[in-house]
Amino acid sequence: MSWDWNFAIEVFPEILGAIWLVIAITFGSFIVALILGLVLTFARRSSFKPLSLLVYAFIEFVRSTPPLVQLFFVYFALPAIGISINKYTAGIVTLGIHYSTYVSEVYRSGIEAIPKGQWEAAKAMNFSKTQTWFRIILPQAIPPVIPMLGNYLIVLFKETPILMAIGVGEFLQKAQLIGSTHFKYLEPITIVGLLFLLLSYPSALLINRLEQKSNQAFTGKKNRRLTNQFHLKSGA
Amino acid sequence: MSIPEKKLEGTRLFPLKQKKNPIAAFENVKKNYDDVQVLKGVDLNISPGEKLALIGPSGSGKTTMIRMLMTLEKPSSGHIKVEGKYLWHKEVSGGLIPANEKHLREMRQNIGMVFQHFNLFPHMTILRNVTEAPIHVLGLSKEEAHQRAVDMLQKVGLGDKLDAYPAQLSGGQKQRVAIARAVVMQPRIMLFDEVTSALDPELVDEVLQVIKDLAKETDMAMILVTHEMDFARDVADRVVFLHDGQIEEEGKPKDIFENPKSPRLKSFLRRFLKS
Amino acid sequence: MTIEILLASAVLAFAVAFIAGLGRVSRFAVIRRVTAVYVELFRGTSLLVQLFWIFFALPAFGIQFSAFLASVVALGLNYGAYGSEIVRGAIIAIPKGQTEASIALNMTNFQRMRLVILPQAFRMMLPGFGNISIELLKGTSLVSLITLTDMTYKGLIIQNSNISYTMPVFVTLLFAYFLVALPLIILARKLEKRSAKGVANA
Ligand SMILES: Nc1ncnc2c1ncn2[C@@H]1O[C@H](COP(=O)(O)OP(=O)(O)O)[C@@H](O)[C@H]1O
Ligand SMILES: [Mg+2]
Fold this sequence. Notes:
The structure holds three protein chains of three kinds. Chain A is flat, with a radius of gyration of 21 Å. Chain A has a single domain, classed as Orthogonal Bundle (MetI-like fold), CATH 1.10.3720.10. Chain A has nine helices and no strands. Chain B is an alpha/beta fold. In chain B, 36% of the residues lie in helices and 25% in strands. In chain B, the strands form three sheets. Chain B has a six-stranded mixed beta sheet with strand order 8-9-10-3-11-12, sandwiched between helices. Chain B has a four-stranded antiparallel beta sheet with strand order 2-1-4-5, with helices on one face. In chain B, helix 4 runs parallel beside helix 6 and helix 6 packs parallel to helix 7. Chain B is globular and about 50 Å long. Helix content of chain C is 78%, strand content 0%. The radius of gyration of chain C is 20 Å and the shape is flat. Chains A and C meet through helix 3, helix 4, helix 8 and helix 9 of A and helix 2, helix 3, helix 4, helix 6 and helix 7 of C. Bound molecules: adenosine-5'-diphosphate and magnesium ion (MG). The site of adenosine-5'-diphosphate (ADP) has 10 residues of chain B, from helix 2.
């Protein structure tokens, strides 16, 4: 055994120092994902076929190619055509876009769970399209999928270490730097792992609780299960 | 074309005797689902204020008819007119072009509908279910919409449920809210699609009573799709019997129920009046 | 190299998924506990952190994996944890009546699992496994960060040699991954459509 407690205690604050950056990036990209996800959902349902097909292709493409390569594309390749952004923005944009495709599927599952009668009643009451979306459909579709969205927040959080590849000083990047200067990797990387576990596991439990509650939401229907076929990346 | 309000208050219109412009008209309307023709050329005029009962066996096309009038389905051919205007088309310099959303919304102002399965908005309180459209569609002030909604909810006997959510109500109560929700929009025609079929038997009467009262005091035209024959006889000015996508017979309730002519109507009524 | 890693880690991941998935529904509390800890540990931390830990930190205990082996182990254990949730979910979704019918036929526990429960559960797992394969393919790109020469790493090298290649390299790289993913996507979507069939619903 070569675990060195003194070393671990010494480097812990340095690694933990990245927490605000990690949180900012996580929530920043989550907000991008939430908003862009909604835009994708609307575009995907557009009656203008070319648009909905294009968006469908975009979603499949982005979801099945590695976020790491997408990150390189955004950070290294976009400047080649004159779009230059700093590494933090690149990270937020990349993760935000990548997970917007998952979020869009979540929204879709929520929307598809709304009974046809709600759309018809909205028409019979003469609501406009926009009013129907924002007053009738989305207020019913979103609350039941909040736990699923929460899961993706955790997944996003656990994806932030890839940003070390473009030099963003998050947990793993810090640990790696410490490791290479001291030639001791065990303690710093273990600390990173524990930090992730400590932050994501309780959040996942919280979301589980939320999920159980939302199954008995205002609809009064019990166990209104929303199945999302892409929902395999759920948090711990 | 529009009727002076005074004349209508308290009085009952007998549109069959009056030669009025119809408020709604079906002109050789056909409807196909894929290869199956479910409406085979329907002609029907509804006069302003008329209460029309639409009866017929299940699958005969009653729902399809009123859903087309509500713009929930599009006719495959033929025309529907409301207040003399094409429902699904826009008249542009003599020709007809398919209606856009704006035209449909204009036309929908005339029409209201109560569904078999209520379709209340579950995320809103009863009060908001009834005020939401008056405020955001009709543009009424909050106070005015509130006043109208409370009056109407009291009328249907739910004045004490304003802050409840639909899930907390019985089926009969839900359906009464749905009626109030449609009435506050003050449409010229109200459509009722078997509004008591989804209810437990003991809750049917409270809903029928509300509709009867409404029918007596309103100048709205009503199309009532129903299997409640006594109710149809009570409320309707005219009864239309639909069979296999066609109007088989129509007439005054008395004639239809006591002196049916077509053998199909006879056997239909025999089955119904027995049970 | 990307394909080799994908195949090797897929084999490991699915094997682990089955073992851990069955472990989660074991009759023995100890086994349930141990597999649960494994699953939560790997789902609760990041794949990249796990990869780094196995490659950089394990040597401190005298266990030195090659970059390739470290990659396969990290990917296999990580996606095995996610896969085990699919296995477990499918098994517990089989209606109780199936278990009771098997008991009525006097099957042993093992027979019940092998002959009745798993064949039905397996169909339900397939779409999930299809999706996991796609996630796994995406995950393989991370091995470039421990200097394994997969597609991504090669792309980075070419890109480094001439800055004007940057755009074409990364576009090509993205499409290359998509091309590998495409059969998996089609398979997964097909399985999703078929998955409901052949499962008792009573
Ligand atoms: N969306 C649809 N697709 C296919 N067939 C339909 C659809 N809606 C109704 N039908 C068919 O049209 C016929 C008439 O239905 P409907 O108008 O609901 O009859 P009713 O209300 O008189 O019972 C039925 O045979 C029904 O199966
Ligand atoms: Mg019907």
